[in-house]
Amino acid sequence: MTRRQSPGLPDRERTDGFDVIRIDAGPPKTLRNDEVAEFFPEARDAVLKLADKRAYRFVSSHYWLSGILGETVRHETGAPHVHTLHSHGIERKKRDPVTLERIEAERRLLSSTPIIALSKAHIALIRQRYGVEANVYVIPAGVDTQRFRPGERSGALHALGLASSKRWIGYVGRLAKEKGIEDLLHAFSLLHIQRPDVGLFVVGGSSGRARIAYLAELAERLHIADVVRFIGPIENLNAAWAFQGADVIAVPSHYEAFGLVALEARACGVPIISSDVGGLRDLVAQESGGARVPPRDRTAWARALAEVLRPDELRRRKDLAIQYRGDEVYPWSTIAKRIASVALSGADV
Torsions phi, psi of 103, nearest 5? Predict the structure, then answer.
């Protein structure tokens, strides 16, 4: 079940063997997370109405509002509930009423519900910051291994509208400040002095046109606009092109509980440079062709990019990335079974 974000979408849609059910809660458009909280009563009523009609074996929820809904369904129907905690309200600097409500809700979930953490670093952070001995299981995110796999570089770059004669650093994801995209642009401007033959492409843009315009203006100020390409969002079906076309994927996040972009890049056999934070420590390692860099350290990022992009070093790291691409990469069918095991029996996974 998900909130309807466009008026033209059907109430129910069958895809890949499961039903997507859209509920009405607030206006049918994209809302910020803090705006969605206002329409929680509508969402609760709609979910309970649907839950009464169907016998669910268990409920799996994501994000704190859905966690509250999951607990409501558990109390009303007896269906077991398991919650995946992707991020934490307690990490937010802003302490507005919605954030305070979120922190309290997450404390309740940690005390009453089996919790899935996405990495070992994530589970340690949960226990440290919330001060509770929660019932937490480490289950990483999965990957569509039929879609995210090594592919032809030149074909992927052609599909993205990029020249295959140039070396490319790829960035994939949201353009929010905490994802480190501004740090990457600054680091790339330092690299550009040494390596004018290298380009940077940015795939993503759900943060809105104003954000993309700001980043494009920043690239102009840094004198790298001619070698930076803002591609925008691409269909999930073709998201693998971004990884297959890149010589190296950059994940400069200030924090990541897990780092799905790094996992998808790994499945495609691409070297990864990431911030040395959170769950990225479980995914990015020297022995698999990767490198970790202190977050926000733009000079260190420029040095790391320059090192990885040296011709001999790049070949070596690409070979390692291909060799170890299957490690810690699980298809979604395996992950679904592990989640079900926790929800239905609390079995050790």
Answer: -60, -45
What the chain holds in terms of domains, given with CATH numbers, is 2-142+332-345 (3.40.50.2000), 153-323 (3.40.50.2000)
Per-residue tokens: 47 = 């979910």
pLDDT on residue 237: 63
The CA-to-CA distance between both ends of the chain, in Å, stands at 26
Cα–Cα dist 325/177, whole Å: 29
Cα dihedral across residues 304, 183, 294, 317: positive or negative: negative
Which one-letter DSSP state was computed for residue 197?
T
Q: With a threshold of 0.90, does the pTM exceed it? A: no
Buried b (16+ CB within 10 A) or exposed e, 233-242: ebeeeebbbb
pLDDT of residue 225: 98
Q: Name the burial class of residue 54, with classes exposed (0-12), middle (13-18) and buried (19+) by CB atoms within 10 angstroms of its CB.
A: exposed
Radius of gyration of the chain (CA): 21
Which regions of the chain are under pLDDT 50?
A: 347-349
What does the pLDDT look like over 27-43, one tens digit per residue?
999 888 778 889 999 99
Residues contacting 221, CB < 8 A, separation 6+: none
| Spacing of C-alpha 253 from chain mean position | 10
**β 12-15/18-23 pair status:** antiparallel
Length of the chain: 349
Query: DSSP class of residue 63?
Result: S
Rounded Cα–Cα distance for residues 252 and 54 (Å): 43
